[in-house]
Amino acid sequence: MVTTARLWASLLIILMLASCDNQPAENTAIKPDNSTQLDLPADIDWFNGSVEQAFAAAKQRNKPIFLYWGAVWCPPCHELKATIFKEQAFIDQSKLFIPVYLDGDTQQAQLYAEKFSVYGYPTVILFSPQGDEITRLPGGVDIQRYVGILDLAINAIRPVSALVSAVQRGESIGRADWDLLAYYSWGQDRGKVFAESASGLEQYQLFALLADNCPDTLVVAKSRLQMLAIDQWANLQPSDSAAYQQQRVDYLQQVTRIMADRELREANRDSLIYAGPGLIPALTEGQQQADLQQQFVSVVEAVFNNDQLDMMVRLRALSAWVALQKSSFEKDQTFSPDQLQWVAESAAWGEASVNKYQYHGAINSLWQTLYDAGLVDSARAILNRALTLSKHPYYYMPDLGYLEAQQGNNAEALSWYKKAWDSSVGPATRTQWGVNYVVNLIALSPDNLSSISTASQTIINELASQDTGLYQRNSVRVGQLSDSLLGWANTAERQQVLLAIKAQMTQLCATPEDRQRAGCQLLR
User: Fold this and answer.
1) Domain 1-156 carries which CATH code?
2) Can you give the pLDDT at residue 1?
3) Is 126 helix (H, G, I), strand (E, B) or coil?
4) Where are the domains of the chain?
5) What's this model's pTM, rounded to 2 decimal places?
6) 82-139: per-residue pLDDT in tens?
7) Alpha helices, DSSP H only, in 332-408?
8) What's the CA angle centered on 113, arms 456 and 63, to 5 degrees?
9) Rounded to 5, what percent of the chain is helix, strand, coil?
10) Backbone phi, then psi, for 66, in 5-degree steps?
């Protein structure tokens, strides 16, 4: 199922990997085959060899590794390629490190992903020449800031995890260290700083500690850490305590100060674009709420109207404008005809204005913007056009499936989910799309036992043909399949189907080594 949350999550992603202890066997190819080859900019000397060879070369040449984990169909990957990777400043800087591209559909890629604790596409990690993870790089920043952050990481004495530990011990760290912390890709930490099981409160407490300890003179770094803390705080359970109410006052002042300062607005652009619907009710009420709403709308409109910004940033602002407006609607309120016309015209302008590298990500943003505004036919039309223009049309088919399911067109929705799976390419991608089909099949046509059985067993057969079929993203997808099947099997007939699927899973997890994998603990 596609949601606005998925879009927002994907926009916050671009990041990195962990130490290379216990690496997989040597000479494992990391280049994708022709069916999954990402068209990477040729001016960057991407490493042509195995992951182990890349780390060995880094140590020998005393150069860090820039590891880019991606997929050919991933819209933020296309955006990264269209912006950062094509800039001469980054191309020049790439000579200082060993750039490695690891496609999620290549042999043993998911095993590497588990070793390095990466999941979402794209993730970018910088490793030291000795193979230690330094930092995970963020998306949503301009090229000057990006190369600046990368330069800090290349020259960093301590990795981000060590810097956090130092702050927790009450030690002083330098200006460059604070910048590294402020621009770390926290959304893709994956257990490097936070424990995988860290609660929202624990994450907030760390962000608040960092924000409080960052020197006031480092205004940009401090503002980014403050926004991290405030965003996380807004997700916590509200309280009537005096301390909580004082936090509301303090955080409102911090947010309004950031929005009022041009440098801080630019440094926190993506946070401000997306934070409004959550922060406005958490920080304010009554007339104060209306005032803060208008401030956020003004920020978003200014981003959309700024022709000096990258087109994808402006289209994200259009999506955020729709979300902000909806967040202030009364019950049963909808957009006015003038507003709908403006959204439709803006989306048409965006679709016509993006270049071929931006197109994939633009459609991903625009169809949801149209759908969220209530322009269902326009959303459907833009997705159908994308099917004929995209090199990876299967990416948009589940979106059409979701759209039709929301309109009650279940048979058509399932047809799109099935087409997406049938036409998808690459082992991890096929597992993802296959599970998506079965999960929706269970939700929309739960009595279709034959299709549920056949599709589930096909997924497991395909996993069995892979060397590392039950690692990382694949393991997560099998977990989703397991949850759906276990919840569905509440009759004797369904139990029989489930037993056959479980038997097949037992064959896949035949050896003691296999049974240690997280994926083999599922469907039991």
Assistant:
1) 3.40.30.10
2) 35
3) strand
4) 1-156, 430-524
5) 0.88
6) 889 989 999 999 999 999 999 999 988 998 999 999 999 999 999 999 999 999 998 7
7) 337-353, 359-372, 376-389, 397-406
8) 160
9) 65, 5, 30
10) -105, 105
